[in-house]
Amino acid sequence: MFFACVALLGIVANTRAADAVTISIACSGVGQELEFCKGAAEAWARKTGHALKIVTPPNDASERLALYQQLLSARSEKIDVLQVDVIWPGLLGSYLLDLRPYAKGAEAQHFAGFIANNSSQGRLVAMPWFANAGLLFYRSDLLQKYGQPVPTTWGELTASARTIQDGERALGNERMWGYVWQGRAYEGLSCNALEWVASHDGGAIVEADGRISINNPRAVLALQAASAWVGSISPTAVLNYAEEESRGVFQAGNAVFMRNWPYAWALAQAEGSVIRGKVGVAVLPKGGGAGRHAATLGGESLAVSKYSQHPAAAADLVLYMTSAGVQKDRALRGSFNPTIAALYQDAEILQANPFMGELLATFTNALARPTTVTGTRYNQVSHHFWNAAHDTLSAKATAEQALARLEQSLKRISRRGTWR
Ligand code: GLC
Asked: How many Cα atoms within 13 Å fall on the side-chain side of residue 249?
């Protein structure tokens, strides 16, 4: 099963050091993630004389979690270092090594909130690697051509997307779509749907005090607005899109707007990209009335499995990969947002990624998923939430029906409102 799910990408054999060991690292392959992970890990292997095995778990965050849970509960030694989503320290923390003794204070450079997120009962179970927040990517050339401003509400986005989609199709681009996003039934849909709900002032699914708030009229409006996009300004296939499928459409020049994470910027601006110089980045729109701008907080860390046979070398790799030097390189060439506060003052980084400075507040105020309050039950909560959203988007249920059912399921999962 393990080898069916992962691809062995490269083994750097280097036996310079007498105590050289082989460290296996699992990093995701979304966009350029794998290339950057591999590059930095290989640099570490050359520096230290250790050998390396790069494994690629599935890109889909929910499938990756399932694989990690399977390996860790089987006490597998096959992965030493794991890429860990910002929502997983609570779920996986007991399987991960405390990195504090190895970090020797390096953690102080990182955003305090990220370190708190990665700490579980006083143990630092993962080192922050890059930060994510949901962003709106738009085609600045097309907005200009049609005299449209950057939308600040979902209503404006919908109207602009429609105008430009119709106009471009009439001019011969039959494949043009207004808006692409992540609508597959997985964690990425939970991120999108949380943004819709919060931007309509419909709460955060489960509030910090444990109250299940999702079954409310503002959340209904939010899901209805998104459902109306499907088959209209968004292809029906969006119901099966994760990050890379939506980027594929935008990158090919066939979408006006896209919701995605920062990594999409460097690829849009890459040499040879057909949309190079034609893309802008903005905060995601707000709902009408009491709405506000909302971006889901994402991000990734690196952790060491408690079952690693080589904890010291594995921790050394993690500290190298998350260091300021490597984070700067990743920001410059891959538009991965650093987790080290000082790097947001680095002129080269800000020049390569203007949005990192202009939208700094979007990152610092990004909306956390309700992991703290739901604890080890977060994945179940999210699973029910993305299914409710998917049922609504695919017209299997009305928003009212889906949210009423979701509320019942969450009550059951929480044992009537007590999450702990
Ligand atoms: C990105 C984010 C992560 C989120 C995932 C959803 O990988 O970093 O936090 O859960 O996307 O697809």
From this structure: 31
pTM of the model: 0.95
Mean pLDDT estimate for the chain:
94
Residue 417: how many other CB atoms lie within 10 Å? 12
Show which of 364, 381, 407 is a domain's final residue: 364
Domain end (from 364, 390, 408): 364
| CA–CA dist 213, 411 (Å, integer) | 11
Q: Work out the angle between the directed axes of helices 33-48 and 324-334 (0-180°, nearest 10).
A: 150
Nearest CA to ligand 1 atom 11: 188
Pocket-testing residue among 34, 195, 261, 386, ligand 1, by greatest number of atoms within 8 A of Cβ: 261
Enter the DSSP assignment of 150: P
- 201 and 288 in a single domain? The answer is yes
Q: Domain total for the chain? A: 2
Question: Helix, strand, coil shares of the chain as percentages rounded to 5?
Answer: 50, 15, 35
Distance CA 387, CA 401 (A): 12
Query: 126-135, 251-260, 289-298 — which is least confidently predicted?
Result: 289-298
* Chain segment 166-177, per-residue pLDDT in tens: 999 999 999 999
